[in-house]
Amino acid sequence: MEKRQEAFHEMIARLHNIFNIKVNVIGTPLGNTGRPTMYAINHVSNLDGLIVNGPIENASNIADSGVADWKFMSVGPLARALDTVFVQHVGKKISDEEKARIVQETCDAAQAPFDKGSNLILFPEGTMSDGAQLLKFRPAIFSLAYREGNENLAIQPVVLEVASVDGQPVPKGEFSELRERYARYTKETVDLGNGKKKYISNKSMLALIWDMATNKEIVFDLTFLPEMDKNAYHDHVELAGATRAAIGKTMDLEEFKP
């Protein structure tokens, strides 16, 4: 796994050069210090992994089970080789019992990296936004913070922002056409049942890659915020909400302004 991670980071560095990507890292990833860490990060694009995995060491990503079958750019085989945690999407038209089963299986799967001495990268919105808002967090995996044996597990909020495109600053906390050069968010979805969904009115992956390829330079701010004090919250739902608030404040979103 260590050699695969090294090869993955080398590939990321090459892709950064190809797409003229620069990442400003603010703060310290706690997992890089040897502390088992769950990184909770806002989700803007299918390429977020290309940005956040650079400075983060020894971490597994979490993804929808459908990603394992992606043949585009060999995403599926690469994800499997990197011990990605694949989870099933919880559909709306399922029984409470089925939902509870899927949630339990998801949490157990997300525990695996910590049992192996690794870390976990989590996008708790569960889907992408336009980068000028923050969707509600799905709290289930935050329950791992309170699972027996995870007393030393850190929950670290991380903020991913497009700082500038072709030298033009991207305004914080509001919609920007510049951010659209990177964002790929779902404007509408159709639930197909069995945990599957279809995205519509959505930028294609080819269009996203074309936008990235035609950028002269794109700069990201990746801010690692202080660890959440999980003992300050009643349960994982409150912890997820507080983590979301920490990220939203840093993004300067109107919802979180005093």
In short:
This protein has 258 residues and is of the alpha/beta class.
Radius of gyration: 18 Å
Pattern of helices and strands? HEEHEHEHEEEEEHEH
Q: Give the CA-CA distance, first to last residue.
A: 45 Å
**What is the approximate shape?**
globular
Using the 3D structure, state the CATH architecture.
3-Layer(aba) Sandwich
Low-confidence stretches: none
What would you call the structural class?
Answer: alpha/beta
Task: Report the count of strand segments.
Answer: 10
CATH topology: Glycerol-3-phosphate (1)-acyltransferase
Let me know the largest β-sheet: 8 strands, mixed
Mean pLDDT: 85
Strand content bin: 15-25%
Structure characteristics:
258 residues, Glycerol-3-phosphate (1)-acyltransferase, eight-stranded mixed β-sheet, two-stranded antiparallel ribbon, 22% strand
Task: Give a description of the structure.
The chain is of the alpha/beta class and 258 residues long. It has one domain: Glycerol-3-phosphate (1)-acyltransferase. The protein contains six helices and ten strands, in the order H-E-E-H-E-H-E-H-E-E-E-E-E-H-E-H. Strands 1, 2, 3, 4, 5, 6, 7 and 10 form an eight-stranded mixed β-sheet that branches. The model has no long low-confidence stretch (mean pLDDT 85). The N and C termini lie far apart (45 Å). Strand 3, helix 3 and strand 4 (85-87) form a beta-alpha-beta unit.
